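Hello, quick one for you while I still have it in my head. A protein chain has come my way and I'm curious about its shape. I'm sending you its amino acid sequence along with the backbone structure tokens. I'd be grateful if you could look everything over and explain what you see. Here's the protein in full, and shout if anything looks odd to you:
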Amino acid sequence: IFSLFLIVLSTCPVGAATYYVKNGGNDSAAGTSSAPWATIAKVAATATSGDTVYFDNESTWSGTLPVLTARAGITYNGSSWGMGTRAKLLCTNQNNTSGIILISGSNSNVKGFEVTASNGTYATNGINICSHCGVNVSNVTIDNMLVHDIGGTQCQPVYGWGAIGRGIYVGTFMGNTISNVTITNNEVYNINYGGIVVYPAWNASQTDRVQNVTIRGNTVHDTGRAGGTGCYADDHHGDGIYIKDDADDIIIEYNHIYANPFHGINVECSNDEPAETDPQAITVRY
């Protein structure tokens, strides 16, 4: 009997837990649905790979960037628990290399949040998959998110132009690879530069790659709010979906794209940096 017990125990998931967090909770509580935590800091200190964290869909969390760092192996759900619609994540400062949600590890899933900047004025990205983390990231899902009013309405001086003001940004910078990303069923609008951007960063010394990305069933509109002299029309200023440089095997399908002043979809070859290669195997359909 004891041997059978050990066999059964060895087949059970180890370390997988479910936690809940809401405004008015208590970080000293158990983190259950009846005794939820209060802060994202408690989530960051406790949740580990394999866990799922439910955010109350009537609550708002605001703070300096990143408001939420999505770590490896954890699922963050902002819509399925509570009496509202979506948990809101709201930034109160700006940072050109971060995002309101920064996805910093593999096998991470975020779904069902509203992501925005205070009054739409702060220079940042909505959701950023590890553009400056310096690590490889794979198997990421971004689903059913509402991303809006990101990046302000002016051209930003930091990094010249395009490092900020992206709705959903998939990019790497330090010779790393991001792979197997699924971006589905999101609405992205009122964005400074590009709505959904796949762009391994302009980098003369190292080869950065983004591979195997599916962009499906999204609605992207009203990008390109940064206008006037000094804004760079060649850097996804007003693109709904923008693909550039070392991006391979990208599928763009079943999206609704409108009211983007530069391009609906822009696949740009690397004509400005010899170390980069052109996008390969890009499929646009339906």
